[in-house]
Amino acid sequence: MDTRNEQLQQVALVTGANKGIGLAVAEGLLRLGMTVFLGARDISRGTAAVAALAAQGLDARGVQLDVTDQASIDAAADLIARDAGALDILVNNAGIVVSHARPSETSIEELRRTYETNVFGVVAVTNAVLPLLRRSSSARIVNLTSDLGSLALAAGDEDFPPLLSYNSSKTALNAVTVAYANELRAEGILVNAVSPGSVATDQNGHAGLLTTEQGARLPIRMATLPAGGPTGSAVTAGEDLSEHPLAW
Ligand SMILES: NC(=O)c1ccc[n+]([C@@H]2O[C@H](COP(=O)([O-])OP(=O)(O)OC[C@H]3O[C@@H](n4cnc5c(N)ncnc54)[C@H](OP(=O)(O)O)[C@@H]3O)[C@@H](O)[C@H]2O)c1
Predict the structure, then answer these.
(1) Annotated region Disordered: where (predicted)?
(2) Catalytic residue among 11, 60, 166, 174
C-alpha cells in the first residue's frame, strides 16, 4: 500500500547508471519528473554522472552501489528508505562481459565473476529494496537482459555468438525474472526482462547500432507500465527501434 502523499514524485533506482544505457535510463526517468537514485559502484564516477546531468538541469541523487557487495547494497537501500521512504521503479541494469571465451575456453573463475554481477547481484539488490517497492502502489522491476541469453535463438545456430559466461548469465537472469514475476504478480508488482537492442557502449567497444538514448526507450517504457501491464515477459528492440517479444 502506498502510504505517501499522492502528489509525491515517483522514485526510481537504476543500477550501473554512471554510464551507458543505465545513465540514459536515469536521464529519461528524470525527464519524466521522477526522483532518480543513480547507482554507481565507484562513487566518483557516480558523482561525475550526477554533475553531467545537473549541467542539463536534471537533479539525480548519486548512491554508491556495487551489486556484488552486500554491505553496499544494504547501505543504498537504507539511504533510499531514509530519503524517499519507498521505491516505485527498480532497473537492474548493471552488467558485465568479462570475455568472449567460448565454452571450452571459459574458466570457472570467469563464470563466477560474471554471475556475481549479472545474476546474483540482481537477486541481492531486488531482495534488499523489495520492502521499499512493496510500499509503492505501482512498483515495476526491469531486468536488462540480452538477445544473447535467448535459448530459442541460440539452439541449433552454429553462428550464434558463443560467449558462454555472458550468454548463460542472461539466460539465468531470464529465469530469475520469471520467478519474481510469479511471486509478485498478486501484489501488482510487474517484473519484466528487457533487451535494449544493439547499443553503442563501452561493453561492446561502441560497436552497437543504437545510441544509449535509443537503447533506454524500451527499458523506460517497461519501467512505466500502467497497472495490468505484462509481467514475466521479455521484450527486445530492433535496429529500427521496433519492439518485439524476445523468445526465451
Ligand atoms: N550495449 C548493448 O548492446 C547491450 C545489449 C544487450 C544487453 N545489454 C545490457 O545492458 C546493461 C547495460 O549495459 P551497457 O551496454 O550500458 O554497459 P556499460 O556501458 O559497460 O555499463 C555497465 C554499467 O554497469 C556498471 N557495473 C558493472 N559492474 C557493476 C557492479 N558490480 N555494481 C554496480 N555497477 C556495475 C558499470 O560501472 P563501471 O563504470 O564502474 O564499470 C557501468 O555503469 C547490461 O546489463 C548489459 O548486459 C547491453
Answers:
(1) 229-248
(2) 166
